[in-house]
Amino acid sequence: MRKAIHKYLAGESYPPEDHILRDLAIAVETEDTSQAVISAPVSIYVCAQNGVLYAGVLATLTDVVGGILAVRAIMPDWLSTAHMSLMTTRNIRSGHVSGHGRLIRCGRTSVVVGVDVYNETERSAGTPEPAGMAMITYSRLSGNGKTLPQRSDGHGHHATCFSLGITPLAQALVEKAGIEIIDSASGRLRINMTPYVRNSLNSLQGGVIAFLADLAGPLALSADHGNSWQTRDLTIHYMTPGIKGPFETAAVTIRSDSHNALMRIEVLDRGDENRLMAVIFNACIRVGS
C-alpha cells in the first residue's frame, strides 16, 4: 500500500511544486509507526566547493524523517522542532545518502527521534557505510484547537518520493534557495521567506535554518583565517518559528586553532523585530592548506 507521507505533515498542499524538499528528491519509506528511512541522491548542487555534501542538507533530511515519525506518534497533536544534534563521521561526496530514523521516546510534552546516517556509493558495493548520527527533540503542541488532517493506521508499508519527476535541481542549492552573503567576516547571510523554504506551518523550514548555520560558520572562518573550512557537527537550539523574514545569521568564534573551530551562530527574523529564532553551535574543521 502506497501513501504520500507528506500528508501526515500538512495535507496534500505541502510541499508545493517548487520546494526545497522536492529539489532534494527525497524518498521516504516506513514499515510501522516507530521506524522510517529517508534517502536522497548526492549531486554537485548540494555539495560545498570541496565536493562534500552540506551538513545542512543532512540536517534537512534528518528533520524530515524525524518529523514524520514524531507526527505519526502524536496525532492529532502538532509539534515543532526544539533541538537537533547532528554529528558526521565521514565525508559524503557521491551516491545516495540515507537516514534511518527510529522513535526513541514519545511523552506528554516531547518526542525524541534518533537517526543513523549512511552513504551508499558504487565503491560500497550495495552496503551503505555509516556516515553520522542525529538526535532530534520535538515539542508536543496539544490543546491548541488544531488537529492534523490525517491519522495513520500504523500498518503496512508506506512509501513516497517528494520529487514530482520534473526537471531535477540544476543549480546550486544555495542559489536556488536565494541565500545571499551580506558580510563574510561576521558570517552574515540573508534569506527571504518564500514558498520554496516555507514549512507546513508557514514558517521557515527547520532544515533551512540548519543550512544557514552550516554555511555561516565556514564563511566567517575563511574570512578570518583563510583557507577553506567545513562543518563537521551541528547542535541546534530552536527558539521560535521564523515567520516574516528576511532572516539573517551572525557568527562568533568561540574557540579555534589551526585545524578546528567552534562557532556560535544566531539566526534572526529581521522582519519580526530581530526576533532570535535559533542558536547553533557549529564545529568546523579546516580543509586544504
CATH superfamily of the largest domain: Hotdog Thioesterase
* The CATH C-level class name of the largest domain: Alpha Beta
Count of individual beta strands: 13
Strand content: 35-45%
- Overall structural class, as computed from helix and strand content, comes to alpha+beta
Task: Note the gap between the termini.
Answer: 52 Å
Total domain units: 2
pLDDT < 50 runs, ≥5 residues: 1-11, 144-155
What is the CATH architecture annotation of the largest domain?
Answer: Roll
Continuous helix count: 5
Mean pLDDT: 88
Structure, described:
It is a single chain. By secondary structure, the chain is of the alpha+beta class. It has two domains: 1-173, Thiol Ester Dehydrase, Chain A, CATH 3.10.129; 177-289, Hotdog Thioesterase (Thiol Ester Dehydrase, Chain A), CATH 3.10.129. Helix content is 18%, strand content 39%. It has five helices and 13 strands. It has a 13-stranded antiparallel β-sheet, with helices on one face. Strand 8 and strand 9 (188-191) form a beta hairpin. Helix 3 packs antiparallel against helix 5. The protein is globular and about 50 Å long.
